[in-house]
Specification:
The strands form three sheets. The protein has a five-stranded mixed β-sheet, sandwiched between helices. The protein has a four-stranded antiparallel β-sheet with strand order 8-9-10-11. With about 425 residues, it is α+β, with helices and mostly antiparallel strands.
Length: about 425
Amino acid sequence: MEDRKIWVYDIEQFKNFHCSTWLNIDTQETKVFIISIFQNDYKEYRDFCYSGIKGIGFNNLSYDYPLLDYLFTIIGNSPLGKIDEYLYLESQRLVNSETPKFNRIKNPIFDQIDVFALSHFDNKNRRVSLKQLEIVLELENVEDIPYKYDEEILLLEQQEKILSYNYNDVYATYQYFLKIIHKIRLRQSIKNNTNLDCINWSDSKIGEQLFLLEYCKTTGENPYEVSKLRTHRDSVKISDILYPLTFKLPHLQNLYNTLKSLVIYNDAKDNENIEHKLAYKVIINDLELDIKKGGIHGSLKGIFKENKNHCIIDIDVASLYPNLYIFLKAVPEHLNIEAFLKTAIGLVKWRTDNKALIKSDKEAKSISDTYKLALNSVYGKFKDKYSWLYDIGCTFKVTINGQLFLLKLLELISEIEDCQIIQAN
């Protein structure tokens, strides 16, 4: 098997002990480097890291690699006893940083793949530790750190326990890497086709940037200039964004009228009340539905099985959010409506027209997955004040009308004779 010099790695840094373990994804070879009172592998360590390798880690962009970079480019010539002292202080600074992304090094010694970052685990709402991941992966061995990081490591027995723990983290990272290797291959394909340095980007960031490139191809604008645009709103009148609908059931029509009277204010104080303003319960043919900002949820209690007289039919609204913002023309006010819709419709059409090819051709599958990321990212970015797609009016236009469309669909289904709705989500 070809050795591509791709290594999964992890670092442990104690007050007077530094170690890193490396696992080659092709040959399964392992390497261990130690800087401590027991041994000093600095020269071999440095030579290895400068030998043209690539590194895969878990949060390595914000912790492991910056620590390595600090070792090799700043303190490498220090006396042995001082190296670990300096490394420990830098390690604590990195760990306690309130802005971990600022720890990242722009031009690393060797290429980095961070499975933590590309999985968007660096988002505070999605944050997952390696230990939590080990449990989800159902790994046989889930270890906790054997000593506190501020302890001094003075015995070989302590070193061996730390090395065992270090290897376990590397193995867990490798197992997760295997689970998401398709995501990395997709990012490599996107990078080759667009020159976007997106290997460590989350799905939503890739999608946002791809949509920006496609939009600017249509308008002829500079992507950098467009990326600075935003629409800031103090409030959103729901009556201005509601699609005209009529319900037969009186309580659903009352809900529509109530929503029509609402005004949503874009400030921190009112944001706490949005959940309550947009939270309702309705009943359609005995099915109680919770309607909240995030969608519609409801399920009848019981066990339901098909029989000679009844079958269970599952209806899925395909590509719900892309189809909603296209149909509703939910386009940020600072953008060109025609160009935005042409971009979105073009991506949808390509995926629809090439369904058969996508199933049989790897390149077509990669393009389709790329376009899917672009289409799916748009809705979420409407509410991201750091995005060029920011316009909360679009968020509520898509969310509220989407809920009402689903309610209308449920109302229509409820009129079918001998049809019972058992679940809606």
